[in-house]
Each structure stands twice: as C-alpha cells, then as structure tokens.
C-alpha cells in the first residue's frame, strides 16, 4: 500500500518561508496533481517528498512508514524531472538500465526489468538507438523508463511535459494516464497548467504562495471552488 501522507510540512529558505503547514492524505494508487503558479512551492514540496530537500518541520509518511529522515533511495520513490538529462553516449537500453547498474543488479533481472519498461513505453524497437536519434516524446519516455525499472511505490513528476510542443504534450498526457492504469502506482504530478491538472487528476491540490488552497476532485474544484483564487485559477483558460 503506497499511501502518501504529508503532515504539517513547513519549509523556509533563510528568512523566506516557502511552504506553510502542508498536510495532505494521498490514497494508494491515486493520481494527484499539484497545480499552482510559478514560484508557489510545487518543486520544493516534491523535492521534500523525494528526500532531495529537507523540510524545516513536518513528516513524510509512505505506506504508514515515516520516511522523513530516510535516504532518497530508501523511500521507494522515483522522480521524473522537466529536464530529463539522458546520457547522450549511452543507448536507450543503457539509459533505462542505468539506475539498476548503479545498484549492481544481476544482468538477468536487469534485462527483464528493462524489457518490461520498454514494452510498457513502446520503446522495444528503440533500445539500440542513442537519445539523439529519438523524438522529444520518445526521449521523455526513456526518462520515465528509468523510473519504472526501479519499481517505485510512488512516482513523482515535476512538469515533465513542459519542454514539449502542444500536440506532443496532448499525446503524452494520454500516455501518462495509461501508464498510471498499467502500473497501479501512486503518482504525484506537478504542473502550472490547469488543463493538464483538470484532465489528468483523480484529485487536484491547488497551491498558492506555499499554501494549500483546496484539495479535491476536478469536478469539486470546478463546481465548488473553496476560494476566489481557486475559482479564478481553475476557470482561467491557458
Ligand atoms: P515552483 O516549482 O512552484 O515554481 P519552487 O518550489 O521552485 O516553485 O520555489 C518556491 C519558492 O522557493 C520560490 O520563491 C523560489 O525562489 C524559492 N526557492 C526554491 N529553491 C530555493 C533555494 N534552494 N534557495 C532559496 N530559495 C529557493
Ligand atoms: Mg517548479
């Protein structure tokens, strides 16, 4: 069970307080989107969940276990970034396999995990190519493959589609929703794009200036916005 509970997370950088008392209970296998304007604290919150940044106070609890002080690799979490730094000199296969090579996994298990991820992401016939020979969407899928092979309990995505053109972004939204169904994993997806949030999320967290304005389904937010900010942010076409 990969529930994800955030308990009273606060974060300051020096005198600047960027997250204010964030508490959220995310269900097992839920697809939750954090949405809010640039600078509202989305990436900082995701980095705290991943263990790449330390909260000033508060707890991160995954599947009932407090992981607040656990190493990033021990949290059962994998993060996909906006700038998906692939290794240009390595094949698609080796890019996907990379985290498993680091773990020194034996080659039979490694191969079966890479082949499975490639199948899910429709990269099976691309495994021998280099990233430079792929389209933008295919490169993003390789970055996602690198997450899948680790069998994480929770996937975190930080604006993974914002470098792609509009048409490809639409396709990738559908692919990521399918991925969520195929993997049965808990996913937290960060975006500043309201359309992305409304079309992809089971539930949406609207963040503004480091605070949760509302946590609810797209329909709840649309029909019953808790604040003026939510009403204008969700209503605003992008
Ligand atoms: P978002 O991802 O929503 O655009 P961020 O989480 O990146 O927002 O940033 C939230 C706030 O925290 C911003 O004001 C940003 O300048 C500040 N911030 C982020 N990281 C740091 C850091 N390492 N040091 C100081 N301030 C930071
Ligand atoms: Mg960000």
TrEMBL record:
Residue ranges occupied by any ABC transporter domain in the UniProt entry: 4-234
Family: Belongs to the ABC transporter superfamily.
The keyword Ligase appears for this protein: no
Keywords: ATP-binding, Cell inner membrane, Cell membrane, Membrane, Nucleotide-binding, Transport
Keyword Disulfide bond: no
Species name: Aliiroseovarius zhejiangensis
GO molecular function (one): ATP binding
Protein name per Swiss-Prot or TrEMBL: Sugar ABC transporter ATP-binding protein
